[in-house]
Structures are given as C-alpha cells and as structure tokens.
Amino acid sequence: MEIYKSEEFNPEELALLGRAIGTVGQGTIIVGRDGRAISRYGKRALVVGIVSTGAATMDVRLIPLIALKDFAHKKGLPLVYVYYHNGIRVEVSGLDPDEIKAIMESRKFIEANPNDIGATIYYPNALDDFLHDIFRHYNFEIEGTALVDCMNTPAVLFFPRLNEHFGFEVELLNDMMTSYLPPKPKEVYLQKLKKGEYTFGLRFKPNGYVEFHKGEEEKEFGSMWKLLDHMKKTLL
Predict the structure, then answer these.
(1) How far apart are CA 98 and CA 3, in angstroms?
(2) Using an 8 Å Cβ cutoff, are 32 and 5 in contact?
(3) Which of 15, 26, 118, 149 is 20 to 30 A off residue 141, Cα-Cα?
(4) Coil, helix or strand for 52?
(5) Residue 82, phi then psi, degrees to nearest 5
(6) What pLDDT score was predicted for residue 180?
(7) What local confidence, expressed as pLDDT, does residue 10 receive?
(8) Rounded Cα gap, residues 200 and 191, in angstroms
(9) What's the pTM value of the predicted model, to 2 decimals?
C-alpha cells in the first residue's frame, strides 16, 4: 500500500517516515527501490530513520516491486519500496499503514541507544534468487511474441532472462528505468498491441502490478507467480 507521495524530494521527511516505519516494524524490514537516483537517495533517508529505532534493514537495492512483494512474502518479512511516478512514492507491505501514519502524527518514535542502532544487511542478489525459484518451478515454453510495456520501471530487468527461459520473443516499450519522463499512455500501448502480430501483452505498472493482455482479455496480477500460473493456463 502506498503511504507517501511528494512532488518534492524531502529527505528529512523521508527520514521521519523511516522512524515511524521502524517504530511499527521492529525486527527486520526489507527495503528496495526503482532505478531513479532520487529513489536511491530517498531509500537512504528512509533507512537512516528505520535503523535509528533499533530495527534492522535488508537492502535488496534495485528490483521490480512485483518481484520484491513475492520475495518478501517468501521471507515472511515486511517491505518498504521507494520509487518515482509523478513524484517520489513509498510503498509498504506487511506493516499497518494506519499505525505508521498515527506514529508520524504523534512523533512518538522509538529512540534506540547508540549501541542498539539497527544494522543494514545488503542482499544484492534478491532478483537473481527470485528468478532462480521461478525457473526451477516453471519449465514450459510459449510460442510467439509479447509486447511488454515496462513503464520505466525495473521490470526491464526481467528481460531477456524471462523470455529466454520460456521461449517467446519480446518487444519492449518504455524500458528506460532511469527516465523521469512519464511513460506513454495505456491507450498508445493498447493500439500498438491491437495492430501488431503479438501473441500476448504485459504491462508492468509502477505500483507493483502487471496487466496481462490477450485478445479482448485483460487481467491484473500483483504476483509474478500468479501471472505465470495464468500464462501457463492461457498460452499453452
């Protein structure tokens, strides 16, 4: 769930949000980001706030949000994700957003002693481990070509590994994950999908969901596992 949005980059505000998240979460919290520099700096500010409460962070760095949600679910840990889409945004899962907002308003943060400041564990191979699990579980082949709109998110990192494993060709749109320009509207994507000879289409949204398109069918998934289950059922 999105708990923060701002058109302006405010690291002090993000650090306060991190203190609220750490106060609510305690334990270990997974943190990730998209490909923009502002998201990298925003994540750093959040982590400073989180560890100041004594909570620990597992930093998976650059990763698609939809993959991070599946990864965090398997680990049984809450997540915090920083990304840019018409402003800097923060997404959380496994934490109570209302409780975080209440802590922010009251400013009743946990203050850890210097010796109890939380540690940060770096886990840069999270996406590789996630894809390894996916490929070990799914071993089917899909014929044809997919039109994939990455919407300037790290979903571009799925390719070419994803299509090579499953055997389909892919044409990518909006694959510049460092761009601050808004991706082309959905109508442009749908028009291209309709006119071209594509077997199916995927549209990865910044909020961690993916649209699956085939003919007149459009379905939305918040998990890569559920998407692949549907692709196996629909495309084979």
Answers:
(1) 9
(2) no
(3) 149
(4) coil
(5) -110, 130
(6) 95
(7) 96
(8) 13
(9) 0.95
- 10 Å CB burial of residue 183 (0-12, 13-18, 19+) is buried
- Please give the single-letter amino acid code of residue 102: A
- Please answer whether residues 82 and 4 qualify as being in contact, where contact means their C-beta atoms are separated by less than 8 angstroms: no
Q: Quick one: pLDDT at residue 230?
A: 98
Q: Which of 81, 78, 68, 75 is nearest to 31 (CA)?
A: 81
Tell me the sheet residues that pair with 2. 91
CA–CA separation, 155 and 97 (whole Å): 25
CA distance linking residue 220 with residue 236, whole number of Å: 19
CA–CA gap between residue 22 and residue 95 (Å, rounded): 10
Q: How many helices (H) and strands (E) does the chain have?
A: 8, 11
Q: What is the pLDDT of residue 208?
A: 97
Adjacent-strand bridge partners of 79: 30, 93
Pull the structure tokens for residue 52.
């100041």
First to last CA, the chain: 33
Where do the H-state alpha helices sit in the chain? 11-25, 37-51, 65-75, 97-106, 126-137, 161-166, 186-195, 224-235
